[in-house]
């Protein structure tokens, strides 16, 4: 059995692979830098439109995730991997995660609806899902309420959006009825 020529193996296989690997790392670094720049530009433009900070955070996170997936697909395509199979793999993983995290995805969808329909904002005093308090943060999956007794309540967005919401901060004045009895 003949001994393979190491210089031929080096020139035909190892060097091209190392060069592709170096290019892939360079693409990853450059792509990451471009993604960060795109996210900064979008953040600045959305803040100039006076959007709520939570909506801006949602949109920035979605943009970052989509751009990173596109970057990974581009790098895999650079290596010659069929990206159609990768798309099928992503779709299958999405279905599996959706089934496993159906409650979390429901809370995420409710968080999106809370941002779109705006029944309350950060700083409003509300009663929802059996909890009364001041809204501290509307997150992607949960909302943080500070109760009058200084207890922080973390409520899933699905429970908030699926229940009656009373917003006491919408109007500047509220009517209070006091019944006084005469002696």
- Based on CA atoms alone, the radius of gyration comes out at 26 Å
Determine the structural class based on helices, strands and strand pairing.
alpha+beta
Our count of helices gives 5
Number of strands: 5
Measure the end-to-end span.
116 Å
pLDDT averaged residue by residue: 85
Helix-strand pattern: HHHHEEEEHE
Oligomer: single chain
Please state the overall shape, judged from the principal axes of the Cα atoms.
Answer: elongated
Low-confidence spans: pLDDT under 50, at least 5 residues? none
* Strand portion: 5-15%
Largest sheet: 5 strands, antiparallel
User: How do the strands of the widest beta sheet line up side by side?
Assistant: 4-3-2-1-5
Question: Fraction of residues in helices?
Answer: 55-70%
SSE topology sketch:
Layout: H1 6-48, H2 53-78, H3 83-100, H4 102-117, E1 125-128, E2 131-138, E3 142-146, E4 152-156, H5 157-161, E5 165-167
Antiparallel strand pairs: 1-2, 1-5, 2-3, 3-4
Helix pairs in contact: 1-2
């Amino acid at each position: 059995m003949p001994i393979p020529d190491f210089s031929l193996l080096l020139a035909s296989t190892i060097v091209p692979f190392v060069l592709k690997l170096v290019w892939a790392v360079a693409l990853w670094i450059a792509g990451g830098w471009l993604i960060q720049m795109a996210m900064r530009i979008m953040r600045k433009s959305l803040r100039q439109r006076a959007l709520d900070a939570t909506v801006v955070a949602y949109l920035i996170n979605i943009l970052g995730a989509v751009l990173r997936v596109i970057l990974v697909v581009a790098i895999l395509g650079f290596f010659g991997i069929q990206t159609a199979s990768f798309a099928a793999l992503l779709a299958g993983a999405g279905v599996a995660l959706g089934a496993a995290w159906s409650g979390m995805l429901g809370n995420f969808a409710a968080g999106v609806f809370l941002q779109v329909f705006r029944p309350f904002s950060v700083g409003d005093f509300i009663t929802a899902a059996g909890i009364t308090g001041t809204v501290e943060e509307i997150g992607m999956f949960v909302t943080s309420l500070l109760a009058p007794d200084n207890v922080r309540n973390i409520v899933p967005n699905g429970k908030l959006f699926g229940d009656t919401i009373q917003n006491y901060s919408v109007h500047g004045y509220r009517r209070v009825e006091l019944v006084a009895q005469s002696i």
